[in-house]
Predict the structure of TetR family transcriptional regulator.
Amino acid sequence: MPRPSTPLLSPDRIRSVALAIIDRDGLDGLSMRKLAASLGVQAASLYGHVRTKDQLLNDIASSVLSAVDVSGFSVDWREGLIRCARSYRAALSTHPNIVPFLAYGPAGRDESLQRLDLLHGALVDAGWSRREATMIAAGLMYIVFGSALSSFSSGFSSDPADYTDRYPHLDRAHLLPGVARELDRDSFELALAAFVRGL
Amino acid sequence: MPRPSTPLLSPDRIRSVALAIIDRDGLDGLSMRKLAASLGVQAASLYGHVRTKDQLLNDIASSVLSAVDVSGFSVDWREGLIRCARSYRAALSTHPNIVPFLAYGPAGRDESLQRLDLLHGALVDAGWSRREATMIAAGLMYIVFGSALSSFSSGFSSDPADYTDRYPHLDRAHLLPGVARELDRDSFELALAAFVRGL
DNA sequence: CCGACTAACCGAACAGTGTTAGGTTAACCC
DNA sequence: GGGTTAACCTAACACTGTTCGGTTAGTCGG
């Protein structure tokens, strides 16, 4: 197939299909050939629209993070922190399979930095020193990313026999998969509340 | 080369060389062929001692996590939480390049579960409900893993020009790489202290 | 002492990966 | 209408984890 009358590919379409594959099959489930097939195209054609796979993932990550809301600081800084953390986590948990990628490389994404800049500025305006503001923002990110990884409550076996013998205090851990989502959210809220209260 | 007089390979030696490669070249820098070459051997030979690469990484992860100290709960639960979190983070930051692997899959490693069991039991003994104990343990892990990922303060550019124009509040961010380690540790301590105090 | 057996390694291969080079043709512009 | 470019293709490269079948050194039973 030579040049088609209407283009089959566009950066947007590539990104959105790629994200759908990641959501469905996980981060490892995305390969350039599979992505191309989903788009009705050969793998090499993607490179006319996308520089590398890594760049594609970065772009997808940025688009996911664009949903983070840092508008809550007009009320007060505690409320701002909480809203920011919640929306950040919400964005990440909508596409949990891309979190390992975010956790991988440096945070030099433009979207991240812009939000960080706002956060930092708001904390300084509220009276914290620059250094304190940096540490508070970092602490907030720790909780957000830690909870988004959710390598915690997910990934537990659902077979009671896996626990009763070897881990006496985890004898109800097999119930976790069923309530994992809810428990993860409550754990996040607990950690967030404790952190902000403790500042 | 057929069977050598003294074996060249052992699971221990494989693990330790693999970990050294990961520490030096990152998680992506470890391939079975490269590992084999470092051991003076062909790649296929590794599979007589190691089931899969994934299993190898799991074993390495377990050995790294074996340094986590959960003995502090004999004093009181706050002290126990803090000590556990500190030693956990220390273990992870000694081999930061393996953290993305930990963050990837489920936490079904035996080492993790044993420590989690102790932690959970100690919190319940201290009067927390089972559910609360689970959430507190989760929150602690959020902070530990979030800070260990350190996709935060690391990964900043050291060129001031990257920030001054676009991110007015981050005009000193170029100083970060130089003090990143210290700042990361302080951020972790702040988050940990705030979290435990806020409980 | 000698044969059987096993343990430890190797070479070659398979299916998969990201990526690039070079070719073909449709659409667009002058 | 001819030249240029954009969008796709096929084929290949160098790599990945892993497996199969061989080759030989060490070990153990008779």
Remarks:
- Residues 1-5, 31-33, 43-44, 47, 52-54 of chain A lie near DNA strand C (CB under 10 Å from a C1').
- The longest helix of chain A spans residues 176-198.
- The CA atoms of residues 163 and 170 of chain A lie 6 Å apart.
- The domain at 68-198 of chain A is CATH 1.10.357.10 (Tetracycline Repressor; domain 2).
